[in-house]
Protein 1
Amino acid sequence: MDKILLNSHAKINLSLDVIGKRDDGYHEVLMIMLSCGLCDSITLTRIDSGIELSSNLSFLPCNEKNLAYKAAQSFFEYTGINGGVKIELSKRIPVGAGLAGGSGNGAAVLCGLNMLYETKLTEDELCSIGSTLGADVPYCIHAKTMLASGIGEKLTLLDDFPKTPIVIIKPPFGVSTPTVYKQIDEAPIQTHPDTQLLIDAIKKGDVKTVAQNMVNVMEEVTVKMHPIIGDIKTELLKSGALGVLMSGSGPSVFAFFDSYDAAKKAAQPFKNKYFTYVGWTK
């Protein structure tokens, strides 16, 4: 095999809780994560040596600053393989959206190189490499319904979340995750998610209970910084969403609906203003 095409899927948070700050500066979190149909496409081609990265986005760095590039470096360092790869990255997940687009790209490169070079690394080994690249990379290697703890690297597989219509809206700005964490450290969080309630509802396939009890503690900070996020949530709820939540540190907002037609109708007013995705959970 000399060439492989992979998709890396966007991640959303059904819950996100910040438990505390560790002595090393990292934050302890507890969150439930899920993938959806929104994805980037990555083509990997074996070459004799080196790493070549190209993208359909002109502003995206195509060097060591890109997680896909870093993932390839880490793979070759870990395996000791004297080889190379050409990476063609077609981005559809918006950058800096709280959807783990970059982490997903890194995860896909690790998995793809494992297949391309037939190294037979286990998922645990791939996750071990991925954890050095970013906290979300191990999750993106699995890309299933999972509970994450620690700094996000400790993963527990949950029951599959029922396939559900979803709308994702991203306003045209980014959010600094370190800034959000800093403000969380300085002010007590008012509302925490009931993680066990959500896990039990997922086990029962009860989408409505999940949708109505989703909590992301970062919203308390990010919505104050960018009130438009709250406005988007309000409009989606008015349009009949079962539940709405900001993903990660934002600014993307997602909503679950009881039918694809309802999701499509609710997304319509946003299409000319913001990035808009209508599809399904994975």
Protein 2
Amino acid sequence: MSTTTNRKRIESIAYIAVFTALVFVFTMLVNVKWPFGNGGLIHLGNVPLFICAIILGKKAGAIAGAVGMGLFDLISGWVMWAPFTFVIVGLMGFAVGAITEKKRKIYWYAFSLVVALAIKLVGYYIAEWIIYGNAIVPLQSVPGNIIQIGLASVLVLIAIKPLEAAAKRVGIKNV
């Protein structure tokens, strides 16, 4: 393997590790417990997740989301949620990255975030149905999930173009 290839691989691993840490930290430190229904959190972990997926691509988005938020669940006492979070948030990151890899327009970014919301709503509905054994109870989490992804989407759509420009200036490309 060439030195250039090794360097790019190491850079990719480093970028993914940084975004994974950001997803974890933004989920852990910037959150509010949803006061209705079964609880859950409204957090900002989706902001670095979506930025990672848009700038670095589907593989990086899937890894950063799955590992960052899955680790949060394990460490913060939401252990039974960790496998579900790993899959659901990994799929969210993958979907956002897959949709935006070749379509670098703001409306595609917005569309990808709507797809992420759909994955979150369906995924966590199924997870709660399995955990609680009830098809009605999971509906209580829908408003919190919409608020969480809606807030993250607004922040990402405001910040993404300047962040993309900065990434381009330093030579960061989809991994």
Protein 3
Amino acid sequence: MSVKETIFGTNQDGREIHLYTLQNQKGTEVKIANIGAAIVSVKVKNSSGEYTDVVLGYDDVKGYENNPVYFGVAVGRGANRIENAQFTLDGKTYYLSKNEGENNLHSGPDSYAFRVWDFAGMTENSVSLSLESPDQDQGYPGNLLMKVTYILTEENELKIHYEGECDQTTVVNMTNHTYFNLDGHNFGDVKEHWLQIEASKFTPIKDKASIPTGELWAVEGTPLDFKSGRIIGHDLQSDYEQMRFVNGYDHNFVIDGWDGNLQKVAEAKGSKSGITMKVYSDLPGVQLYTGNGLEHVKGKEDMYYENYAGFCLETQYFPNAINEKEFPSPILKKGDKYDTTTVYQFVVE
């Protein structure tokens, strides 16, 4: 097991950006950049014994500085969408940037996804990065200190551990926005991937703006029924209204039996590689996004990514949860600790 630090490049302000390479005894390799705390690559052995990079991304710092599709990054302070870019907390209304129509997406154009994180420590199998987010940053109350630790185990688990504390009651909903293609980032698309999600319900959206209605709908009998597993591409072009709104999947699933403890929430398998990915989380929701907005995005190794080139499983509190009293709350109270873990485990069959 080893961790190696190198220079990834410099950003537009001339600041050095670092790349941290984690490798276990199996040869599995994970690269993390401190810009956006991004997962730049994950290389695992496929069923033929060849190493396959299973995440979409960029070759250089410039890509991650711009990154309109959020490849690989840690998203915060509040991931996903907040309706009308505002919320009320303890009787006070807070206003965020409107960066997706009238709504706020991933905390706006100054998301943590685009910032340079500070080095916060390293062990033989992990690297920690931290970020100080001052009061009123992005429109949120309170001085927040956020830390994310990436851990690679000998069981081929990539663990993402978020920790945060704030001096005021605030909203925190961190996620990671990695796009996976288990047949390889340069394979083409994920339409033939098999996917299973431990969710009997989802949060339906009102329209193309993707704000939840506040209801919970059963997945049974719909293209969103991944309870027993199905091929991702089977209903991508379905006439089901929820699918037509977003040209595929971009929906939050409600995890069955959620109690705040780490549990399996999803499993996916590549169609050619024999690589299976199991996902574990202690959060109540997971957003399945099938890369519906990827249109000729230049990525690693001169690869151009198109629609459905990768899929995201973003563990999270539900979209717009701060404005829906019936949803699990993303409020972090003053003095409490934000502490959540997501695990992506890779198995070759």
